[in-house]
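This part of the workshop introduces the protein records we will be handling. An example says more than a description, so a record of this kind follows:
>
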Amino acid sequence: MEQALKLTRKLLVAANLDPRTVRGERPEAALSLLDPEQPEILDRFDTALRSPSRQNDPVTLFSRFDPDEVRLVGDVIKTRGRMTFEKGSQGGVAVHADYTFVYPVSRADGSTEVTRTIVRRAVEVELADPAQYQVTPGRLLLMEYDEEIGNSSCDVHDGYLHPEFPSSGDRKADPTGPTTDPYDRSRSLDDGQACGTVSRT
């Protein structure tokens, strides 16, 4: 149990807080925690990182910004969430993580205007029993993952989050979903929810 929780925490940090990941580099530390006995998962993210598309976008699991577009302001990314665990389906421990990450960013051109992108992630992983299943000891099986992103341009699938700034009137795509509070953690994540408007950043 302790190892499963530690590995899940490492995955969340590597995927959402590691400076290299956040500035758009390949999230090697996060990928190295996933079990190679799930090749379809690793292949999916390899494709997503190499050739992002609507069907394969790395921001579904990794928080990445285009360094030519924006930069992180300061070195603090606020987080809030929790992890729970239970007996897994693969003879080990299943961990459910639900966390919100708040990224303060400004334009890379030196502008002092600051906005925030809010990313909420729900991830289910399992540390399976290698005595019962063909798995790699110390690696996580990625069972499910879902995300909700507040203040990032809709319908842009190039592998990066694209914050919108209040002073800019050039919204890349009109929102089609409802207005939501990105800080409201009482709501469950609605898989496949249409791109909406955030009530605050």
In short: Residues 2-16 form the longest helix (15 residues). Helices lie at 2-16, 19-22, 28-31, 39-50. The chain has one domain: 2-167. The chain has a mean pLDDT of 90.
